[in-house]
Each structure stands twice: as structure tokens, then as C-alpha cells.
Amino acid sequence: MSTATTNMVLSDRLWDADGSVLWIKRAILLVAGIAALAISAKIQFTTVPVPVTLQMLVVMVIGAAYGPKLGAATVASYLALGAQGLPVFAGAVAGPAYLFGPTGGYLLGFVIAAYAVGRLAAAGWDRSPVRMAAAMAVGILCVYIPGVIWLSSGAALFGGSFSAMVSGFVGDEAFAGYGWANWYAYGVKTFIWVDAIKLVVAVIAFPAIWKLVGNARG
């Protein structure tokens, strides 16, 4: 397999573009990805303190299909819109306050996961179920590690000065954390098996699509 083919992600294989058309393609994919993230955030099961949504699956699909740079940029653009107050998050409110709430670490992890999974997909990991499963496992870790750290420590992780700054910026929404004694119960247990089941979809779908369209340019 050539280097050019290995570095090709699924969106490149399905939509070959260059020059000005390439930027149009990227803009369309970015907008579509943001819309998918916003919709998936609203499909949820209410759990405390972080709701279960379809976003984990969508983040991984975006990363694998778009590649590391466009994937991460799409997720970061989604977060930027939410920070501006657009109702794109899982909660009923948006804005900076939401980013500093219990889900803040997971939202940051989404960007990291999209980049990491995109990088692995560009290396060809999405061509086989076993390697795609490994890529999904890496993506899960990229989301859960910052998510658990933030959920367990919150503003206390950065000391009183940071907590005071956040309080002054977002008012009563500043997040203090749930404590490390609760890291598994609140940060992992509710979500891990649900997320693993959802990601089976990507593990099956991506290698099947690659097999259908072919691993090399026609």
C-alpha cells in the first residue's frame, strides 16, 4: 500500500478534491459535522452529572472520516459556537458557563479524540476491524482521561485563584468537582459500556465501507 493511499481518510476516498474545490469540500464537511454533533447532543438519556448522548460515536466518526486536522477543527468549531451561546450542547444552556461545568473535561477530550482517531485513520487503522477497535479504544481514553480529571477535581485542580476567576466570569455556574472518591461512579461507570457498544458501529462500518469503495484510488 502506497504512502499516499495510507494517508487517505474516508472523506478523501469518497470525495476527491483539490484547489478551491478542496476548501469548499472542507467547509461543507465542517458544517455537516457541527450539525451532526449538535443533533447527537440532543439525543440523550439524562444521567447525573453528565448525560449519555450519541456524541462519542459522532466525534469518533468525524475524526476517522475527516482526518486529524479537519476532524479536530470541526469539533473545536462546535465548542466555539456553544461557547458563544448557541444551543448546541446537551444541556438546556450554553455559553462559557457550560464549558466550565461537569462536562467540560469531556468536551475538551472530544477535540483530542477527534485528532487522535483521525491520525490513526490516516495511518490506515480504519481499514480492519481489529485496528479500528484499537483506534476507538485510544479515542475513548482521550475523552475519559480529561473528563474524569475535570469531573473529579474541577476548578479546585487549578487552585483558588482559578476558581475565583471562573466564578467572576460565569457567576454561580463555576464547577468545584465531585471529588476523586467518586471518579468511577460519576465519570466512567454510567457511560463506558454504552459508549463501547455505540462504537461497535464504527468498528464494523469503516472497514466495510473501505472494502466496498476500495483501498486505492480508482
- Helix and strand run: HHHEEHHHHHHHH
Number of strands: 2
- Tally of contiguous helical segments: 11
The major β-sheet equals: 2 strands, antiparallel
CATH class: Mainly Alpha
Oligomer state equals single chain
For the record, the count of structural domains works out to: 1
Strand order of the largest sheet: 1-2
Strand content: under 5%
- SS-derived structural category: mainly alpha
Net shape = globular
Structure description:
The protein is mainly α. It has a single domain, classed as Arp2/3 complex 21 kDa subunit ARPC3 (Orthogonal Bundle). 67% of the residues lie in helices and 2% in strands. It is built from 11 helices and 2 strands. The protein has a two-stranded antiparallel sheet with strand order 1-2. Helix 3 runs antiparallel to helix 4, helix 5 packs antiparallel against helix 7 and helix 8 runs antiparallel to helix 11. The chain is globular. About 6% of the residues have low confidence.
What is shown here, in short?
With 218 residues, the chain is an all-alpha fold.
Task: Show the helix and strand layout.
Layout (H helix, E strand, L loop, with lengths): L2 H4 L3 H5 L4 H24 L1 E2 L6 E2 L1 H12 L1 H16 L12 H4 L4 H19 L6 H25 L6 H11 L12 H5 L4 H22 L5
Antiparallel strand pairs: 1-2
Helix pairs in contact: 3-4, 3-5, 4-5, 4-7, 4-11, 5-7, 7-8, 8-11
